[in-house]
């Protein structure tokens, strides 16, 4: 997974998770890697972390997207869609070439 794709995945899921372990399991990465990414996103000002004051488990945090984080999420989503469209078009051309050449096999 590209760094941008991983960042986008974390930004997309950050507001719905309650722990880094849950996020790591959902995305298929180690807790350490998720922790590293979340801390980098916090440093960049894309998300902020709030500890659940009422939670019995003090390891639970709520991750909130900031305005800067929302803008970054939009930018990364647009890049992702453009990349996938280009891949689709390339595959479509390749498929058409195979179809056109199938009589020559």
From TrEMBL:
Record-linked InterPro entries: MarR_EPS, WH-like_DNA-bd_sf, WH_DNA-bd_sf
Pfam family, any one: HTH_24
Protein name: MarR family EPS-associated transcriptional regulator
């Amino acid at each position: 997974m590209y760094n941008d794709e991983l960042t986008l995945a974390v930004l997309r899921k950050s507001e719905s998770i309650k722990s880094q372990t849950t996020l790591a399991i959902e995305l298929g990465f180690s807790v350490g890697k998720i922790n590293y990414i979340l801390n980098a996103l916090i440093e960049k000002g894309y998300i902020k972390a709030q500890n659940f004051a009422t939670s019995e488990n003090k390891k639970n945090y709520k991750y909130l997207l900031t305005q800067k984080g929302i803008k970054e999420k939009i930018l990364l989503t647009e890049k992702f869609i453009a990349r996938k469209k280009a891949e689709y078009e390339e595959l479509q051309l390749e498929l058409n070439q195979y179809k056109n050449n199938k009589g020559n096999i």
